[in-house]
Every structure is written in structure tokens, then in C-alpha cells.
Write the C-alpha cells for this entry.
Amino acid sequence: MNLAEGFSTGLNGLAANKLRSGLTMLGIIIGVAAVIAMVSIGEGAKQAITKRIESMGSNLLMVRPLREEETKKLTEITGSSPGLTNEDGLAILKECPSVKNVACEITLNAQAKYLSQDWNTSITGTTPFYQDVKNFHVEEGRFISQQDVDEWKKVCVLGKTVVSKLFEEENPIGKTIKIRNERFVCIGVMETKGQTGWRDTDDVVFIPQTTAQKRFTGNTKVTGLLVQSKDLDGAEAESVVSEIEAVMTKRHKNVIDFEVRSQKEMLDTMQQATQTFKMLLGGIAAISLLVGGIGIMNIMLVSVTERTKEIGLRKAVGAKRRDILAQFLIESVVISMAGGIIGIISGIGLGVGIGKLMSKAMPGGTEWNSIVSLGSIVLAFFFAVGIGIFFGMYPANKASKLDPVEALRYE
């Protein structure tokens, strides 16, 4: 029996028992579809996270205070520290040759109110370099100036979400809003930034750093420092981190009550996490293929039993053992290939569909595209064929070993 005859026989066998063949292929279809869909969703998640982090600049570093209980423990052992302040940022800018800009960040939640409209939002006290450091710029009006910071001015710049909630179609520039019963004049509106995970980056109000400290926090501490290095691709992140740590350690009297993290480090961590997530999903989906393979073995054993007389007759007229082996093995592979092809089509549709559902489910309609790679399709298809060969080998081998005399007598 040649290959063409084997495939023809296999297809005829599928057509003769459509329902049984369909149920046998179901495990392979589900397995292949699940592998392709899960891997494409994982790849889409990886790209979405990477794109979001890179949009903030690969040369961004963040200096954050350690948790309060850790800081207390450290200061008890080594002395006192003033905590993280804007002066730390000025020192980093002055003493670190690899640093281009530094902006401080004071974050708190508060209710913003305009006439009868109110909205709970995030308030960020900061300095003029913020929009360059974070790659987040004003679209209308202007951003906070150094004069605003020096004079503790009660001015604000609004994110697009806050504008839509408070002003709807009205132009907010020059209008006065209330934040914790303090009146602030709107001087600008930020461009649309979009989502970072489940956080709406546009749901924010920016005010001068000193105004936030004098009016709201009552101290000189900051929530964090945003540092922009001169290295635009983030390749020298480790050396910049070392420079910052040296300056901060000296200023804080050897109390390490802070941590420095680079955007590149965060990107690497997130990519590793999504890669692990993708492999886990793919592994779980591959189990379905194994279950499908067991189904193929089961149905092929039934087929061997049903066709015992046929096997005996073929052997009686001169068919060799390898011909019988090839016949049943090819039938097993045909079932796997057919299931694999249907599974590929289903997996692509499923991956794209879930990607669109995720985009709609994410706050603000964040774009989340599933990425169907040729590699995942090829891998899933050949794995399905391999399953057919592996699980079809035992029934085919059993059929090839049947004694022709006993097979012809079989009832």
C-alpha cells in the first residue's frame, strides 16, 4: 500500500463513521485550539504590557521610600533619616552625571468638584520636569511652572478622564474647581495616556509640589522621585542606579530607607512573568491533546476489532505486516491531521475573539490584541500529528500481528 492509498482509505474510514470520527477528533480539536488561543492571548498580554511600559520611556528610574515599618527598624539601628524629599531629587540631578531630569511625586486621593459635579480622583503634586520624565504632555494650556512651585500657587492640570467627568463638553481652562475645599484654577489639560493595567492614567489632577505639601500633607516628604537618565535606551540602567544609591545613602546618613528601580528592570520582570504565564497556559492546553490521543487509541482499537476479518482477508491475499501497520497508522494520523486543521481554525478565531472581549472588559477600552504566531500553529499541528502516530502505533501494531487464519474465523 502506498501513501496515497493509505490516506484515501483513512478518509473513507472517517466518512463511513462520521459521528464516531467527529467525537474522536474532538479532543484533538480542543487541544490544538486551546494551545493556539492560549499562546496567542499570552503573547498579546506580553506585547500590551511591554508597549505600556515603553511608552513611559525605557530610561525612567523610580526612587521610592521603603515601607514605614522597615524604615523604623533601620533608623533604630543606624540613626535617623529625614525620609524622601524633593531636596533628594535636586541632589541627584546635581551630583549624578548620568541623570538628565528629576521630578518629584506626591500622590493622594481626593474629591474634585466643579459646580454640581464631583469626582473622586488621584491628586499628584509635582514639579515642571514631570511631563518630560514621564513622557506625558499637556495638550491644551500649560503645565505647572517653577514659579507655580515657588509661590505655592493653587493651579491644576487635569487628565482627560477628570475633564469628562466634571466638565463634559465645556472647556475647563480658566475654570475653578475645588479639591478638599481648596479652590484651584485649571491651567491645562493633559493628552490622552490610556490604561496601565487596571489603572486609568488619565484619571489624575496635577498640582504644584509645594501646594500639595502646604495645603494637604503638612510635611516636606514626597511619595517618590522620577529620574530620567541620559541613556535613552536604558542600557546603562545599572550604573545609573548605583550613582543614585550612592548619593541617597550619603544624604540619608547611611540609612537605606529607599529603593531604586529602573523601568528596564520592571519591563524584564513583566516579560518574564508573562512568558511563564504563556507557557503555563500552553502546558494546560497541551493536556487536552494527550486526552485526545487516548481517544484516538481507544477508537482505533475498536476499529481493529471490528475489521478483524478484513485484516485476515488482506493477509490471505498477500498483504504484508507492514501494509497492515501502515494502513491503521495512516488512519490514526488522518484523524489527528483533520482534527488539527479544524483546531487551528478554531484556535485563531477563539484567540482573536477573546482578545476583543479583553479589550472591551479592560477599563477605558485598552487595546489588547491576541497575537497568533506561525510558530504556535506549526507546533500545535505537528504535535497533533505526533499524538496520532504515538497513540495509533499500538492499535496498528496489534492489527499487523493478527494471524490470518484466526482473523478469518473471528465472529
Notes: The mean pLDDT is 79. The chain is about 60% helix and 20% strand.
